[in-house]
Amino acid sequence: MTTNTMTAPERANLKAANTTNEENGENRSAFKAALEQIDGIKSSLRDIIGELGEAMTMLKAAEREQRASAKEIEVFRAKLKEIQSVEI
Question: What are phi and psi of 9, to 5 degrees?
């Protein structure tokens, strides 16, 4: 069995780069584009969360209606059974 040993990279080995104004502008525009993209994602997520909230509300209402319908059916069955048991 062979073992591979890896050494950790050196820390704090970043050196200040000599950048021009053009490179700074490109970096800023890249950062601005990334920030705009993140903002768009956040907006989309807010919309999705709102839609999920609406879906939850609709599902809860449907569940309440289903329970009410089940109770009505049970009452109806009980009355039907009562009527069927009456002898004339």
Answer: -70, 155
